[in-house]
């Protein structure tokens, strides 16, 4: 078996870097770190979002379903389906999100406009 030549490949996610975003012709890829104090308000997107859990734990509500996601899990939020998330525990959650189809150029860029800081526990 011959080894693959990866000289033309470029790293997308740097180990110690912050969030990253790449726009391809038909989709976008968004690498994000959600702090342990983060959640989102209920929202929808015109595109399908496929989220790959890399680290941490998150609670997801998608439509009428609830999911507890850990590293290796995949979460799918179909287009126009209300959903929200909350980071669980004291560790940040790193995710990789595939957005398809790609959004219009004026809407492209890192996601996160729906992310909020969770209120302090009472």
TrEMBL record:
SUPFAM superfamilies (UniProt xref): RmlC-like cupins
Domain of life: Archaea
Annotated InterPro entries: Cupin_2 (IPR013096), Flavonoid_dioxygenase-like (IPR052538), RmlC-like_jellyroll (IPR014710), RmlC_Cupin_sf (IPR011051)
Region Disordered, residue ranges: 102-122
Cupin type-2 domain segment(s): 36-98
Protein name: Cupin type-2 domain-containing protein
Organism: Haladaptatus pallidirubidus
């Amino acid at each position: 078996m011959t080894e693959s030549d990866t000289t033309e490949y470029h790293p997308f996610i740097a180990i110690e870097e912050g969030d990253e975003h790449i726009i391809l012709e038909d989709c976008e890829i968004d690498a994000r770190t959600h702090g342990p104090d983060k959640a989102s308000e209920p929202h929808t997107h015109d595109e399908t979002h496929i989220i790959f859990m890399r680290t941490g734990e998150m609670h997801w509500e998608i439509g009428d379903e609830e999911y507890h996601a850990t590293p290796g899990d995949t979460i799918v939020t179909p287009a126009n389906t209300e959903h929200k998330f909350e980071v669980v525990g004291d560790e940040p959650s790193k995710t990789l999100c595939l957005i398809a189809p790609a959004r219009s150029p004026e809407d492209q860029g890192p996601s996160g406009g729906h992310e909020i800081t969770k209120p302090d526990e009472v």
